[in-house]
Amino acid sequence: MASSTTTLKGDEFDRQLFESVLKRRFFFTEAFEIYRLSPNFKGDNRGLFDYGPPGCALQANIVDMWRKHFVLEENMLEMDCTVVTPELVLKTSGHVDKFADWMCKDSVKGDYLRADHLVATVLKARLARGTRGLVKDSPNLEQATIDEYNGILAKIDNYDGDGLAELIKQHGIRNPENNNEVLPPVPFNLMFKSTIGPSTAAPIYLRPETAQGQFLNFKKLLDYNQGSMPFASASIGKSYRNEISPRTGLLRVREFLLAEIEHYVDPEKKQHPRFREVSDIVLPLLDRETQLSGKTTSRTITIGQAVESKVIDNETLGYFMGRIMLFLAKLGVDQSKVRFRQHLANEMAHYACDCWDAELLTSYGWVECVGCADRSAYDLTVHARYTGTSLAVKEVLPEPVKVEEWQATLDKKRTGPRFKKDAKVVQSAVEALDQVALESLAAELEKNGAVVIETPALSDGTMNVELSQELLAISKITRLQSIREYTPNVIEPSFGIGRILYSLLEQVYWHRPNDAARAVLSLPLAVAPNKVLIAPLSSHPQLNAISHRLSARLRKMGIANIIDASSASIGKRYARNDELGTPLGMTIDFDTLTDGSVTLRERDSMVQVRGLEDEVMAAIRGLLEGTETWEQVTGRMEVFGAQEEDY
Ligand SMILES: Nc1ncnc2c1ncn2[C@@H]1O[C@H](COP(=O)(O)OP(=O)(O)OP(=O)(O)O)[C@@H](O)[C@H]1O
After folding, report:
1. Looking at the 3D structure of the chain, how many domains does it have?
2. Which protein residues are within 6 Å of ligand 1, measured from CB?
């Protein structure tokens, strides 16, 4: 499509105006709005939104593109798992103990504030006041203070509770809304808790991510994939996080659509067969060291170079970062407003060993829209350990190889009577011990005469046993190995669809020159909610009939379209659809009745061409399928030029 004529620069962006367009056109609205206005409404509906028709269509188109770009392109195994998750699963995965953010309480009003956001908001405001003279007569900040604040902000995600408490104390940080003091940060678990059925004895959580359902089915997925590695599963579904204080519209919500890929890979073979397809893509990277040095400027580097120099840990991680970049480009994201930021050590989720976020630049600053984490073997290992179900891969070696290894043997004559119905569980726990564990246990057994090993849950609820030398022997043996067993590592690209949708909308929003009331959303054809507006110039029944026929023709081609036969001026109708991001407009007038010609208007340039109905239909199809550009269409059809549109 033609490029926008007045792209809004960062400073000119008027969020209020932009959001009023989205609300007016019903992209989304706050949930339970009419109840929230009631004096009896006690709840908190922040972070809960309903999508209206264009928001819904845009979301569906993004998801459709995601499915084609990832699931279809890579033969991923898609799953749809339940939201309701037993506590035990999330206890094992570490979410019950660790999936928390730090929050501070306003000492007077009792409001809760997310601690890292509080510090960042206050320091940013001080910097804005003290360096840009935003507040009249406010003193300029000393350069050393400016550097200190910037340094803190560059690594704000790296502070734990104590670190945040120290910052709050040291910098006299208070609630910016009322200047009240805040209490020291405490952790708040972000999962919504409930119970299943009438019994309170069966606690559940709404899943905070789709990943766990995929991991629990790993054995079945591997079988379905004929035991072949590597492979990926994928899932799209609602996830829930009880965010402490959501204030940034669609960017931080409590219920959101997550699209996640879990790519299972041999830990010793993290090369990717299609790596060469992405190795020349240039990525803007903001790595860990740069952030720790207090800087926030990313550097551009090809994925190939980044993997070779180990800035990106391995090919598979690099491959997915490249695929994420290509996906965002297809959606219409401004490539100069994307960067990949590496997680700092404390920021990383409890399961991750490396993580890069794809961040998009918005009026709220850089926003994480896609997380790309190497979860190592963490999840499969903990679930296998707890349940005693093997989630390992057995690889048949091309030739048997001689291996020296530690072997643990239980004396079953003794362990049977000793552990009774738990004997099998104890045995599976011993069998699950890896070589590193066996080596240190062998030394411990020799030294102390007994060792304690972790087990899946036993009948008395405990999860470990003591094994003396009488019950357990650990020795080094040499054997011929024909099967290698390993727990796969997982590379996980995780896409917050709502964040991508909102950031994209901000990036494609602009208005006609000198007319802030005429907003345009330059959404690409592929994701625009409606592709074609059909506008009859009069309400004449014959023109109406043609509109419906054209609409049906487009529908038959799978092209979403909308008829606007209202009495509003054609300029108004175009303007309305510019705000909806509709890329093309077909106008039907009385000439259509005599010579069968129709007009096709392009949203961004407002240029119109005229041709026979079939020609215009072919142009629309070509534009949608990407076999023709708008420039080519204007080259071969009669051009009207940009029309002055009465509004
Ligand atoms: N509260 C939320 N609202 C909307 N999208 C979210 C929210 N939390 C996470 N996401 C999306 O889910 C993706 C994967 O989640 P992940 O756990 O990596 O996020 P996160 O690091 O916890 O995010 P943040 O640091 O912003 O809280 C994110 O990249 C983001 O797009």
Report:
1. 4
2. 241, 243, 252-253, 256, 258, 368-371, 494, 496, 498-499
